[in-house]
Structures are given as structure tokens and as C-alpha cells.
Automatic annotation (TrEMBL):
Family: Belongs to the leucine-binding protein family.
Entries under PANTHER family matching the protein: BLR7848 PROTEIN, LEUCINE-SPECIFIC-BINDING PROTEIN
Name this protein carries in UniProt: ABC transporter substrate-binding protein
Key word Signal present: yes
Amino acid sequence: MKKSQIKKWLYPLAVASLVMLSACGGGAQTTGTNGGGSTGGEQPAGQAQPAAESSKEPIKVGAIFSLTGANSPLGVPEKQAVELLLKEINEAGGVDGRPVEIIFEDDKSDNTEAVKAIKKLVSKDKIVAVLGSSGSGPSLGMAEFAAAEKLPMISMAAADQVTNPVRAGIFKTPHTDVHGTKRIFKYLQEKGITKIATLNDSNPYGSGWTQQIQKYAPEYGITIVAEEKYGTKDPSMSSQLTKIKGTDAQVLIVAGTNPAPATIVKEAKQLNLGIPIISSHGSANSKFLELVGDSGEGVLMVAGKLLVPDQVDANDPQAAIIKKFVDGYKAAYNAEPDGFAGYGYDGLNLLVEGLKQAGGDASKLGEVLEKVNYVGVTGEFKFSAEDHNGLTEDSMIMVEVKDGKFQLLK
């Protein structure tokens, strides 16, 4: 082949190669961070894309949820709710024109993993605040580290110890075990019930409930005639239920997260326990109904209003935001959101509201959040220097399982 012919053949090939290289590597790349911080590939739903959406640096926030393990029925909907809201926030311009980027981590429902994850987010990812975790144990470990690092944190865990005593920058969105205990006791007073038995998880969540029940029982004229506990992974609680059956308890209070409460209900029916069962808000989701089946009929539960969104009074201050969240969540995931999804949704809304009031200055976030008043799907939050949960038992409801569904008790 002649030299002139070789040049004619090579030239278009070289141009084509340059075009291919430019398309593959010359443009701006987006980085998706999910779980262990993997990069590249398809962007996760809701993940901020700062390079494409804004020339300003993103505000980096960590989110540690229990995406696997025993607390995954809590953590998965929390993550979904955060992703849904994140997309909305960034489409509306983020915070002062800066997109919010959330880096998700899975604590595998393990306390040690949660602490490892928050340390990684601080040292490697340089986050300015963190959401999580789903469970009380992991959240308590995270809170200790976050407080020492002066890192603002909003937890999705119910244990009162997360925010009591108050620590600078540490907040939470769920109703506490104090709120749940008081709401149940008010119901028992109305029904003239004075003798109770308890069967609570031995983990930090269940232990917190045990402490609050012991603390507030005298105030409400309640006597604890039996007090039992179980391990989170125990397959059966029939021996504890047999002991309780031999007492004169008028009602059984159960505090734990699924699947154990459902197991307790089924075994109680098999043993003909013969007294009502009231479950804590730790099992207030559709998973409980799925696990308990027909045995759940008549079970009572304390919960937030989001558990029965279609039964919330139209004049309720929370009605509008509950409807907005439920409609958006159903459109995105073809499923009803539960209270745990609500904790994540409120957590990110509170964080962003704090950042906006702080003018995007994360160093002021902890101080600013203490002044935030916000009507959320969980309740009406009124944070203060003395209260980093901001809720009361008045925004909790009592429900009963009827025909396989939760029904509001009025």
C-alpha cells in the first residue's frame, strides 16, 4: 500500500478514536455513594449529582441505616424516604444553591458496625452532619462519637437515652419510650386496668421501655405483676408467656422490633393467654401484620399517626404533610410508608431546615436546631436547649388490628 493511501485510511480512524475517548472520559463524572461507598455506575435514586446540577460544592451528609440484619425493616424504608426527599430538595435548589449529597452506610444492625461507619464518614468523606441509625444500640454508639467530634446528628432510634441527657448537637425524630409508656398508661387508666405484665427485648430499645414502665407505673396507678425479657434473636418466648399466664395481669405490654413481637402474639394465642396484648411502636409497620397473620386480630399498639394516614382528621396540623409524604412515597415505591420511613423523612427535613436557618453554615447547625419548630409526619417538633426530641405523647395514637389492618381507636 502506498504511503498516501495509508494516511487516508488512518486519519478517519484517529478522529473516531478521539471522539470515543472524549465520550467515555472527557465529560463530568457523577459519583454514587451507597453502602460501603462504591463509586461509578448508575446513580442511586435521590443521590445528589453536584457536578451536573451545580457548580457549588455539595453539602455532604452521612446516613447510617440498618439496611441488613434484624433492624432492616426499619432501615430500608428510612433510606427510601431520605432518597425521595433528597431528590425533591436538590430539584428545588438545595440549600443556598448548594446541592445536598448523602453518603449511605449500612450498619448491618450492629453497634460496632455503626461506630465504624460514622468514623469512616468523618475521616474519609468529610461529612458535616449525620442521620441515623435505625436502632437504639447503634445510635447510642454513634451519639457518643458524634458528641465527642461535635458532629450534628439526628437519630431515628426511639430510646430516650439517645437524647436524655441532652448532648450538644444530638437530636432524634421518633417518639421515645417515655412517650409510648405514658400514652399506653393513659389508655389503661381510661379502661380501668391497673395490673400489667411486660415482656420486653433485652436490647437497649426494650430495656429502655422496661425502665420507663417501672418509672411511670406508680404515677398512673399501675402495678407490674410480672416482668419478663427475651433475646432479640430468640425463636420462642413460650416459657415467659407461661409464667405470665400464671399471674393476675390484666394486660401484657410487649416492647421490641419485629419479628419477636409477632412471635409473642402467635404463641400467646396458642397458649390461650387470655389477656389483651399492647405492642410498642417498635413493631408498628406492615411487616408485623404480615408476620402475625390471623393471630394479630385484636392486638393493640401505640404508634404515630402515619401508621393510619387515611384515618387522620383533616383538621389535624399534621394532615397536610402526612398526605404529601404518603402520596409521594406511594408514587415512588408502590407501597405505603410506615412510621420508620417517617422518621427518616422528618430527620432530613429537620436537618435541611436547620442548615437553611444557619445560612448553610454547618458549624452552627447544632445551635440552630434547638430553635427549630417543625410540623412533621411523626409529630410537631419543638426543639429546645432542654429537649432534643421535641415531641410529646399527645401526638401518639392507639390502634387495634382489625381484619388484618390497623384501625384507629378513638
